[in-house]
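Q: what does this look like with 2-acetamido-2-deoxy-beta-D-glucopyranose bound?
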Amino acid sequence: MKPFVTATLLLSVAAAYYIYLPLPNTVCEPWKLMILDAVFRSFMHMGDLAHDLGLSHHIHVINYIVSKVEVKGPQSSKTVQVTDTSFAGVQARVFEPTTQVKEHHLKRGVVYFHGGGWAMGSGRMRSYDLLCRNMAEELDAVIVSVDYSLAPEAHFPQPYYDALKAATFFLRPEVLAQYSVDPKRVAISGDSSGGNLAAAVVQQMAAENKTSTKFKVQALIYPVLQALDFNTPSYQQNGNTPILYRSVMARFWLEYLNGNTSLVPLLLANNHTALDRTGVPEAARAKVDWTRLLPQSFQKDFHRVSPAQGSAQVVEELPALLDVRAAPLLAEEEVLRAVPPAYIMTCEHDVLRDDGLMYAQRLEEAGVAVTRDHYEDGFHGCMVFSFWPAKFTVGTRSMWNYIRWLQEHL
Ligand SMILES: *[C@@H]1O[C@H](CO)[C@@H](O)[C@H](O)[C@H]1NC(C)=O
Ligand SMILES: *[C@@H]1O[C@H](CO)[C@@H](O)[C@H](O)[C@H]1NC(C)=O
Ligand SMILES: *[C@@H]1O[C@H](CO)[C@@H](O)[C@H](O)[C@H]1NC(C)=O
């Protein structure tokens, strides 16, 4: 019996060591978050191990696990009809409320892009599936959850083009009519990398001004919007806070832009935007200048990291770092002026907090109406953790506030 007890004890200590993370006490349900993070980290470690052994790309390993555990078939319920389909060649899951109020009754519409670092996840995952069902029911809206293509197979601009194609297709008068959607009441939305795609697509449509139908509002949930500064106060403050670590976000960017992932340390040092990097125009630097764009209360005592000397021609080699379609925070003010009213949700314990806050500021300066919804106890990804077994009170709260905002503004 003794070796068994010893082994159990040792394993428990090892597990506790693996799970335990010092977390700020202001984050929602820290113990639950530690466990969730340990699960995520173990997937990441498995992915990295398989990758290093040359067995499979690390993202494929993670997506394989997700597809087995999380992805659901299209199951209609009494209230919502669910269909997997293709919008101009892009996969999408459509959620249609079945309520027949009266004839010729038109519904709202929402085009939604899931998160996952442009590499992971799917609109067919349980969490997004449930979110979209709730939205369809509560908002009496047709929800189009777009499965744009992902890294490592697809790199920028492919996922962006997929998002643009699906959104443009849905806004076609005959498509809206087919789904009984009111052309005056369609929103574009997404979380994390999906928020990036939503912001980029709505900017492009505003700049082009080609489609007869426009999105009425945009709702961005902890969006990722820039890759010039990996040392904003929120990147500095939350670099080691689950579930999105600073180095993981830098790696997602490099994979999205098809850069070499060995550049992660360079990006984290802001060496790509060092002051001797003449490829970064002053105008672009100004658009991510958090010392101007963030309220003092978020700047705290953090200092700008802008080294005098950089180490490589990263921006010249990866021009997409300066492309507004990849980094919507860099858009010109004329473009911002033409985008629809915005809801921007941010979380205190999130490296991307300041991406969202800076964008809110730039939109307001361009005269766009912005609702800022900030969660002091929120962490990156929390809104989709509102369902058992990863149910956080901040997840449930933020999800219903988001839906309520759409209820009032769409
Ligand atoms: C968009 O185009 C319409 C007509 O084509 C025009 O009336 C409108 O002013 C344009 N809007 C912007 C922001 O350019
Ligand atoms: C990435 O960079 C590393 C280190 O500079 C180099 O060894 C490797 O060959 C590069 N990979 C690709 C795909 O260019
Ligand atoms: C950043 O650039 C400096 C100056 O060239 C160099 O000494 C340093 O090693 C670089 N850091 C990284 C992480 O590349």
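Residues 260, 262 surround 2-acetamido-2-deoxy-beta-D-glucopyranose (ligand 2) (CB under 6 Å). The chain has a mean pLDDT of 94.
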